[in-house]
Design goal:
There is one protein chain. Helices cover 45% and strands 18% of the residues. The chain has 198 residues and is an alpha/beta fold. It has an eight-stranded parallel barrel, surrounded by six helices. It is globular, with a radius of gyration of 16 Å.
């Protein structure tokens, strides 16, 4: 299955309801600090929405719920990897994306045979506090050389205007969060993203 070049990340299924009809075909649901019963309901709704619109849903972190619901993809950060049952994830047939920020994390990720590798933050990000500084486009080029044919996701401070540079540097997929969710007109911004990446 080939993945779309545009990869928005949202924190609620309400965002999926707004954006999937506009043509989003690859989306991550990243929900933190939510009780598991509520989380399961939100993820089930997100999965149903994605299936209805023919989109790929990637579940951030919550691999147990992803397995229970029969989801197709899970994304794990480095700390999430410490607690995840990777054999169970693989037995369930889930595809795996892994975040990386330095060479040690990339080596660890590649040893786990992921289905994509994410590198970030490419640019400074306001989404969350990170100990890593801006990676820059040079690191995108280096990562792509190191991972070969494996899809590379560029994330962190990405905007429509920066997407072309990330692709030229070697990214296969560009991920965005606040460039959409904090925009005055998220739907219009999303259409710009789709136009710029198709």
């Amino acid at each position: 299955m080939s993945l779309d070049r545009f990869y928005p990340i949202f924190d609620s299924s309400d965002w999926l309801e707004r954006t999937l009809p506009l043509g989003v075909t690859l989306v991550q649901l990243r929900i933190k600090d939510t009780p598991e019963a509520e989380l399961r309901a939100v993820m089930a709704r997100a999965q149903a929405l994605c299936r209805r619109h023919g989109a790929v849903l990637v579940v951030n972190d919550h691999w147990r719920v992803a397995i229970e619901l029969g989801c197709d993809w899970v994304h794990l950060g480095q700390e999430d990897l410490d607690a995840a049952d990777l054999p169970a994830i693989r037995r369930a047939g889930l595809k795996l994306g892994i975040s990386t920020h330095d060479h040690a994390e990339l080596d660890r990720a590649l040893s786990l045979s992921p289905d994509y590798v994410a590198l970030g933050p490419v640019y400074p990000t306001i989404l969350k506090k990170m100990k890593w500084q801006r990676q820059g486009l040079e690191r995108v080029t280096e990562w792509k050389r190191l991972i070969g044919d494996l899809p590379l996701v560029a994330i962190g401070g990405m905007s429509v205007e920066r997407a072309a540079g990330a692709f030229q540097a070697g990214a296969d997929i560009v991920s965005a969060v606040t460039d959409i969710t904090l925009h005055a007109d998220p739907e219009a911004r999303l259409r710009q993203w789709i136009e710029a990446t198709r």
